[in-house]
Amino acid sequence: MTLSSPLLAAVPLVAGLMGPALVGATPPQRPASSAAVHPGHHPPGARDSGPRAARADQAAARRPDVVEHVAARGPADQRRVLGYWTPRRMAAALPLDLAGSVAGRLAGPLTRSSAEAPAGFQAPFARGGLLGGLTGRTDVTAAPGRAGPADRLASPGRGPASARHRLARPHQTTYGARWSAGGAVTRTTGRVFMTMNGADFVCSASTVRSANRDVVVTAGHCVKDGTGRWADNWTFVPGYRDGGGHPYGRYPARRMFVAGPWSRSADDSYDVGMVVLATSSGRHVADVVGAQEIAFNRPRGGHALGFGYPADPPYNGEHLVYCAGRLRDDPHGETRDQGLGCDMTAGSSGGPWLSGFDHGTGRGTLTSLSSFKYSDDHRTMYGPYFGDAVRTLFTTAERA
Questions:
Q1: Neighbours of 122 (CB within 10 A)
Q2: 86, CA 20 to 30 Å: which among 122, 155, 237, 317?
Q3: CA 306 to CA 175: how far, in whole Å?
C-alpha cells in the first residue's frame, strides 16, 4: 500500500530476527489530537476541581516523573548476566530498531508511530510489546543521493572498509562514515546487549559524567519496550571491538530508569533511558573509559556528531560509525525531537549525539541520541531534546 506524504509513521532501529532488518516499536494508536502525558496534566474532562485536585496537581508537578527497574540485584545475578553473553550469543543478537519494538521490524519498511497515519493505514506493529508479530524484515539499502562510497561503511563483499575510511580529519557533514580518528569517543561509546521478551538484541550507548561514575545513556526503547516489559540481561560493552572484543570490560545493569511519558505511552519525545551499571573487576565504568559531558535545555539547532554501532546493511555492527551535520526540528511537528542527516541503521539506537565536539580529544557534550526515523525519509535520524524531564532522569540515575 502506498502511503501519503508526509508519512507520519516512524520506526526504531531494530534488526530483523530471521532476515534483513527489523523495525522499532511504535506507540499505541491514539487519536491525532491526543496529547502526551506530562506530570500534572490531565485530559480535558478528566480533571477534578477544587482545592484537593489543585494540591494533587502541585504534588504531581513536584514529583520526579521517573520509572525505575531493578536489574541485576547482586554479584551472583551480575555473574549470571555476564555468563549469559557467550561470544556465540553476542554474535547472534539482533540490532534493536530506532525507537521501538521488535514487532514492526519484520513487517515491512521502516515505520514507527502510527498516530498521524493516513486513514486506512495499518501500522505494522504497536509499541506496547516488542515481539508481537515478528514475521520478516526488509533490508535497508542506500537511497539515491546518499553519501558516496567514501562516506559509507563497506558491507561484506564490497572490499575492505579500512581502505574506505582512512580519514585525515573527520567530516563536518556526513550521512554515515566509519570513525577512524580515535579519541575518547572510541572508549565512551559502546554496544548494549539485552534480552527482550526472550529474544536477544543490540543497541548503542555512551557513558556520561555522573556522581556515581556508573551512568550510561541510551534510548528508552533499548531499556523498556514502551508500555511493555523491561529488558533483561542488559550489558554494556564500552569500546566494543570487531569480533566481540571487550578491552575495557563488560558491565551489567543494576538499575534502569526511563521517563514517565515513555513508560506510560511510548512518547517519542521522551525516548531516553539511563542505566546505572555494576562495576567490572571492582572498577566503575567512568574510571576505566572516561565519560562525556551531558547538558540540558541547550539552544535548539547547531552542529552535532552522532555515534553508534549500526548493524543492518550496509553496516555490520562491528565498527563505530558517525554522522555529522546541523540539527533541525521535526518537520511534521509530531515530536519535540531534532533531526540529523544520517543513514545509520538498526543497532545504532541509543548512540550519543555530541555537540561542541573536539575532534582532537574525541570529547563533546551529550545533548541527544539516536531514536527513530520516519518511513518516508531514511536519510534523517531523530533524537529527543534533552530538557527538564531528561535532567530529572539523569539526576535520579546518578544518585542510584
A1: 10
A2: 155
A3: 10
